[in-house]
Sequence to fold (105 residues):
Amino acid sequence: MGQQSFLPGIDQERTQSEVEAAFEKYRLYKFLTFEEREAKTTAIWSDSPRSFTGTTTDQTASIAIHNVDTPAARREYCERIERIVRRLPRMEKFLYRRKVYEHRA
Fold:
């Protein structure tokens, strides 16, 4: 008697394209540097008071949050991919690493 599978059928083409996209994103995050945002130093003058619009912005806080959160998210993503690759069989791990480093050259 055959073993029953509780997993639905896997669309191999879609799965392969999503895996390749995840590895491409990994390569971009791992090997391209992150460019930090900087605050504008030019003053903006307006005839109407700031409270008139009902909105306020804190450009410096938004930039600081972006400059901290984005590299952290990139690092976390790369670590997750590396954990997955470590669990692969030895030959698949070798082929993946070879492909990653071929793209760098």
About this structure: The radius of gyration is 23 Å. Residues 59-86 form the longest helix (28 residues). DSSP finds four helices and no strands in the chain.
